[in-house]
Amino acid sequence: MPPSPPLRERTAGPAAPPDAVPPDPPVADAGRQRPERAALLRRIGLRVLALAVLLGLWQTVTALQLWSPVLVPSPAAVWQALLETSGTHDGVRGYQGHTLVEHLGISLRRILIGAGAGVAAGLVLGVLMGTLPWVRVVLEPAVAFLRTLPPLAYFSLLIIWFGIDEAPKLWLLAIAAMPPVAVATASAVASAPTALVEAARAIGARRRQVVTSVVLPSALPEILVGVRLAFGIAYSSVVAAETVNGLPGIGGLIRDAQRYNQSDTVVLGLFAIGVSGLLIDAALRLLSDRLAPWRGHT
């Protein structure tokens, strides 16, 4: 008779299975995404409806002939002006030898260079005004003075100084774009969290390190708002910048068409400025969300 196995071997059952790994939580809640998608569709639908209503009112006013077509062109006339300025008709290419896209592109290049220089100068001045009290005392009145001046108020002086070529236009856009960035940056830098600044100093950070690593990141959302305002002001000033020798350019196109009572071309130029301005602002808003995603969530 063979010996019986030990008690431990007789009582031990099969090896216990390893602990089951809990399932991963769902990546996204479909029920939460559905209301957000519906809200987005409602916003888009309301905007499309509002645009359709405005176009309908515009068409109704022109069809009733309440005003002369020279004063209020019809949507069809503006569409025809778009077709004529976008190609070659009767041997004439676009408007004054340039298409509408070319006029708009030249104006955008001026805005990019001029407003870009103004934004850069505003950032430097804003950081100095926000970190050095004596610089703020000296420069704040001058920045506020420039912010209250309309562009046409000093454009004539810029023409006297720099002539009628590109220089006065770029200077005008730079001066118009600089004050809002400087004011926003100075205010944001001056109101940086004191606890974070003191903590950085306590671990041995120098002034420049405190500014670049603590102050500027905390002030970035407000700075980006100032940049958006600056480009908006510069864009609204492009017509003033192109009143003198502005062709080619969208502002010069509007001014030249106004001289010959071509109201359909004037309205087309205004639409081109407005639509491209909305696209630029949307791009800056997207950039702000990417660079400062914590804005509105803290």
TrEMBL record:
It is found in: Cell membrane. The chain crosses the membrane at residues 44-67, 111-132, 144-164, 170-190, 210-235, 266-287. Signal peptide: none annotated. Residues 15-26 have a biased composition (Pro residues). Residues 1-33 are annotated as: Disordered. SUPFAM superfamilies: MetI-like. PANTHER family: ABC TRANSPORTER PERMEASE PROTEIN MJ0413-RELATED, ALKANE SULFONATE ABC TRANSPORTER-RELATED, MEMBRANE SUBUNIT. This is ABC transporter permease subunit. It comes from Streptomyces californicus.
